[in-house]
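During the no-cost extension, the postdoctoral fellow (Dr. R.K.) reprocessed legacy sequence entries with the updated structure-token encoder. One reprocessed record is reproduced below for audit purposes.
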Amino acid sequence: MSCFSERTGGPVRIALWPRFSRRAIPTAQNQWTTPEKELNAAMSPRMNAYRTVGLAVVVSAVAIAMPALAQTAKPTTDPTGAKAPPPTAPPAVKPAPTPAPPPTPPTAPTPNPSPTAPANGQPPSKAPPITPGHDPYRDPSDPAQSPLTWEAMFHDWGTIDETQHQTYAFKFTNNSGKKVVIANVASTCGCTIVGLDKKSYENGEAGQITADFNPQGKRGEQYKPVTVTYTEPAGTPNTVLILRSEIQTRINIEPIKTYMMEVDRRKGQSATVTFSGRQSDFQVTKVDTNNQYVTAKIGEMTTVEMDKAPYRQYPVEFSIVPEAPIGMLQANIVVSTNDEKTPTINYIVAAEVTGDLRATPQRLAVRGYTPNIPFTSVATLDSRSAKPFRILSVDVEGRDDMSLAADVETAEGPDGQIRYTVKLSGVTPDYTGLIEGALIVRTDLPTDAELRIPFSAAIKGTQSNVGVPTIPGAGAVKAVPPKADPNAAK
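Re-encoded structure tokens follow.
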């Protein structure tokens, strides 16, 4: 805190708050206290003193100011004792009158800009007006920044069928007064193929960019930007042209692909896929599968509204049958319909079939990204149904130059179930690229006699001068002895 002193003619600085550190402070009882508690104990006497000093300063300031105030308020008298008249204030000077501002001439109302208004003398286009927050994937670029004069920078095909290929030509003229060289014309999607007759255009010369759009596999509203880049004039910004369409699909498939995770081989699993056709008499007539463990069943037809049109929808139930083999399973499905333009539909159903034996994680990742680095990776094995089992052996498939070895340990979990820990160890090879292998675990479970646990690593860089460490027992197969299984005595 600071205040002004008339005696010194300058400010007087007064500290009203003590400084405390944030460290803990030991007390007399050898117990540690916080700064907040110590602050409460230390503040009272100091604050009283600071309050007294502050009050004295305020009183002194008031005492100094009082005589001046009293002198100002005391009336003056003449020698005869008569009161002097109060001082007369000088007459106020009237300010000069402010001249009135000239009348503002009326302005013509500004017409609302039209989305199709011409820009830079160009013919109207269907492009929306460019705003500071325009979307480069939906709005064309500013025509004033292009060295070419475009007839249109935005084209809308409207509502089209997914089987109808569309073509459009963006026509332009070089009115810039100088030579224009186009470096490249590109689209953001492989469904749109763009073409250019030539790249160099003299002043007054015209040309066009053709765009061929394939809507197959697309649905709903689509915006396809076409970007034009230049080499001359130097520093010319890119030009963005926009193609728009509203695509009505003949057949909608939801979901587009089916993948079932952790399918219990004892129970199997099912998933439903809908096939919806826009044709007025659309039907799903047949479903064929190339995998004996995947079946299909066609359900009853219902009418639904999709993409602002009525569709006939058929549910198809795909099932993974019980006792399917453990591991990854895939079926290629062929769905037959009465749509003349889409008589067949290819579909994929994939599943991960699991047994009673479970590995966590299901895939091991080698934590070594450079050559000649020792590594270990661990997986835990248990039974989903808590059924006792024994590991008979563990083999390792992999490169010969990795000194691969597997070790098995047992432990009892909190639920009393025996869990096995399989540890993979080795050395990353002097090789750059992807390496893969697998642990092959064999058990005494009739339904899960063998379980594969894949492992992989991406080796980057080289470390040629480092020797490959030697790991005792590399490549050996270690079996769990029967006495290590507490369930054997139960």
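The chain has a mean pLDDT of 76. Residues 35-73 form the longest helix (39 residues). The remaining legacy entries will be reprocessed before the final report is submitted.
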